[in-house]
Amino acid sequence: MTTNVLHSIDVAVPVSTAYNQWTQFESFPRFMDGVERIEQVTPTRTHWVTKIAGVEREFDAEITEQNPDERVAWTTEKGTHQAGVVTFHRIDAAHTRVTLQLDHDPQGLVEKAGDALGIVQRRVKGDLQNFKEFIETRGSEDGGWRGDVPRSPQAGDTTPPA
């Protein structure tokens, strides 16, 4: 059974600053609880090591769509199943709404129990709050990847790829 999580947070930085920082995946352990390490393998592939509630997981994630200052979507491969998208919405010149939508498939008894208790939802909300504090305290990003990854055609699409 898949868990769907949706949370937003407003951050007091311009949209390009929030977006650029989010594309620095190797910095995620600084604001995401349970993320031990992320390695950027290619511009669109990352390798994750997580440890949550004593359960260690390693998996690869592939960026499936990326549009600078708008969105980053991904899905995991080899390991835990997870897919999601983070979007960036300009509120004004100095404020951005960051929205994270995550589909997570808990594995094993511990993860399923934690999911039933709402731990995943609280963790996502907490990680977004940590991101807000991280980026607002810094005031600027520590890098950014502005590459464009077009979305793959989906079933039912009638428009030809550009």
- Sheet/helix structural class: alpha+beta
Shape: globular
Rg over CA atoms: 16 Å
Widest beta sheet: strand line-up: 1-7-6-5-4-3-2
Beta strand count: 7
Q: How many helices? A: 3
Enumerate the spans where pLDDT stays under 50 for 5 or more consecutive residues. none
Give me the strand/helix succession. Answer: EHEEEEEEHH
Average the pLDDT over all residues and give the rounded result. 86
- Helix content range: 10-25%
Terminal residue distance: 35 Å
Largest sheet: 7 strands, antiparallel
Q: Which percent range describes the beta-strand content?
A: 35-45%
Q: What's a quick, concise take on this entry?
A:
With 162 residues, the protein is of the alpha+beta class. 23% of the residues lie in helices and 42% in strands.
Description:
The protein has 3 helices and 7 strands, in the order βαββββββαα. Strands 1-7-6-5-4-3-2 form a 7-stranded antiparallel β-sheet. Helices cover 23% and strands 42% of the residues. The termini are far apart. It is an alpha+beta fold and 162 residues long.
Topology of this structure?
Elements: E1 3-11, H1 15-22, E2 35-42, E3 45-52, E4 55-67, E5 71-77, E6 81-92, E7 95-105, H2 108-116, H3 119-138
Antiparallel strand pairs: 1-7, 2-3, 3-4, 4-5, 5-6, 6-7
Structural descriptors:
alpha+beta; 7 strands; globular
